[in-house]
Amino acid sequence: MVSPVTLAPPSPEAKTLDNESYIRFDLPGVPRDGVTVLLDQPNNTVNILADAPKEHKYDSSHRNYDGTKLRPKISVGGINTKIPCKCCEFFSGFTSHMADGVLRLVLTTSHASTRRPSCTCIYPNLTGPILMPHCCIAQGSQMPYESKRLQNGGLYVRVDMPGVPSDNFTVSVTNGRVKVTGVAPALSHDSAGRFYSGDVAILSTPVDFPARKIKTIAKNGVLRLVIPPV
């Protein structure tokens, strides 16, 4: 028998560029064509809608990201973030890129006609090693970790690692602990790359066995494991 343990995801990132604002938003499980970004100028909002399909029969459900609204000078999806800055009125356009469960937006800002005080933007604090629910999931599991015991005594595990390409995951088993790691490279205006590492399961006995015995499926910033019984 195996038992799940937790590991940690990072948080979103935002920064102000020259006449633009950059936002990196994690949407694990969402394919390249599964996100819609709408610029609602009358209401001064940027709406992000996305759907992560149920990829495996053991997934509890699909996940729907809805209600993610970005406005100048208010919070982003409940996260303590202000975008873009007080010197800007609103966004006049954007470019977007979706890959490996991460949406990257570059928003062109429309500056006010009168000069205002220098920018006092507030950016999000990275959460680091803290397991947190996704703030903008309208349907499905909000947690970045999901596990399900199987009838044969094994375990199914879903781990969100947004930004990590499908060939940048590793799985190892040492002393009965199943460990996963992943490297997400820095792209676009990211401040840095991201490294994921954590034990996702503990076997009933402290044994080593080849990781190839664990079925792994890596797709759209999500790693799924089917761990056999010991």
TrEMBL record:
Domain SHSP residue range list: 136-230
UniProt cross-references to InterPro entries, sorted A to Z: A-crystallin/Hsp20_dom (IPR002068), HSP14.7/HSP23.5/HSP23.6-like (IPR044656), HSP20-like_chaperone (IPR008978)
Superkingdom classification of source: Eukaryota
CDD domains recorded: ACD_sHsps_p23-like
Family: Belongs to the small heat shock protein (HSP20) family.
Name of protein: (thale cress) hypothetical protein
